[in-house]
Amino acid sequence: MKTVDLRKQHRALYQASRKTAELIEVQDLPFLTVDGRIEPGAAPGNSPAFAAAVQALYASAYTLKFSFKKRRTGAVDWPVMPLEAIWWVEGGEFDISRPDEWSWRAMILQPDQVTAEALDEAVAQLRKKKPSPALEQLRLLRFEEGLCVQMLHLGPYATEPATVERMRAFAREQGLVERHEVVKGRAGLEVRDHHEIYLSDPRRTAPAKLKTLIRHPVKRARRVH
User: Is 132 helix (H, G, I), strand (E, B) or coil?
Assistant: First the structure.
């Protein structure tokens, strides 16, 4: 059986310092994804749609892992990677203090062996066990983030703004500005602003010890003569 060590292969993308920000180039990668939007008055922690998306992502990720592992020929195994989410605001600037305005793309990194056909088979299996609208929204997508600033945030999600400000200060020192990317969402083209990678399980980790890797796409600032 072949083993694809995604954690080792992409180590630089899933570990960072909490003391200093860093620049990183993120290559083209495949992800299981579900798109959605936080309900009015809700937040990521109590959003029914986001919770359903996370459940669908993990269920499909493990179903794919075990189905490939059990293959008689071409069997392959890999670790299920952390949950990630890209957050943005439709038609406006991302405000980290107003989560009920956020749109999101929840996702989990996959090995190159996973195909759209394999995902369809996994969804068909899961549909028989427990149908869910989120299962029908699952997609296998590839995208390239390119040049980014990233930093590890330690502590509750509510204190992330301080880490984001340190990242922005680092970017300015490097002659960089945040790059607003365009991604395909349910409602059309949306602005991608804030990428979080959840290295801790909030159900089992005290808020003060939560580890969240934060990543923002950047580009060289224009010089004004």
Answer: coil
SS3 call for 190: strand
- What length is written for the chain? 225
Domains defined along the chain, listed by start:
2-220 (3.20.80.10)
CB atoms near residue 144 (< 10 Å):
10
- Rg over alpha carbons for the chain, rounded to the nearest Å, is 18
- pTM for the whole thing? 0.91
Is 195 within 8 Å of 136 (Cβ atoms)?
no
Residue 42 belongs to what H/E stretch? none
What's phi and psi for 36, nearest 5 deg?
A: -175, -170
Strands (E), 5-154: 22-37, 76-77, 84-89, 102-109, 139-154
Q: Comparing C-alpha atoms, which of 42, 67, 219, 64 is closest to residue 146?
A: 219
Beta strand pairing status for 84-89 and 194-198? antiparallel
**What CA–CA distance (Å, rounded) separates 89 from 73?**
45
pLDDT of residue 187: 43
Reading the block at residue 109, the tokens are 């990194």
pLDDT in tens, 168-214: 999 999 999 888 755 554 344 445 579 999 999 999 999 999 999 99
